[in-house]
Amino acid sequence: MTNKMAHREINDRNIRNTETRDREEDKRLYFLHDLDKYKVASEHPDVRGWKLVDSSHNEVGTIDNLLVDVKDEKVRYLDVELDENILGEDYDPQANPNVKGVHGFTNREGDKHLIVPIGLARLDKDDHCVVVDEVRRETFQRAPRHRKGTPISADYEFAVSEALASPQAGMRQPADRPVGTAVPGEFYKRREFDETRFYNR
């Protein structure tokens, strides 16, 4: 790969970027379909359109997009359009005080998308799907959602991480979250962002 290539490739290690000059200085995350000069590396499947399933292979939703960290040049999240069998469960995410990170995010009509950290999922090439082994159906139902295409705030990233990730991952309390368009770089050192787990390495 050289800098003369018109298109850059996304792989499990990094992505290449030629478009950062005119962006907000602190913003890290962009949807892949908004980045004209990025594409999925040829050696990896493009999982957009694939089903996301739980450990029992019950359908959670469909992967609609990928969220790219343009500073570290990595995919950080799968943007998932949740299945009706998840949306149909009328959970109020603020009603359960034991679910950390969801307060302040009320799921409203039209909020059908959920970002899933890349390291919580793994490829299943045989069944042409992506599996999340460590998150229960009830957690997906309670997790804070967003409307398709809306910008992803730092506060929402923390809320999702706290709702979906293992308690052993060292989640911060809500009061410690930064406010703004980007989380600090060390946030992505957490286990749920380890992309090698996605590729079963």
TrEMBL record:
Q: Which domain of life is it from?
A: Bacteria
Positions of the PRC-barrel domain: 45-133
Checking SUPFAM superfamilies in the record gives:
PRC-barrel domain (SSF50346)
Protein name as it appears in the record: PRC-barrel domain-containing protein
Please name the InterPro entries in this protein's record.
Answer: Bac_photo_RC_H_C, PRC-brl_dom, PRC_barrel-like_sf
Organism annotation: Fulvivirga kasyanovii
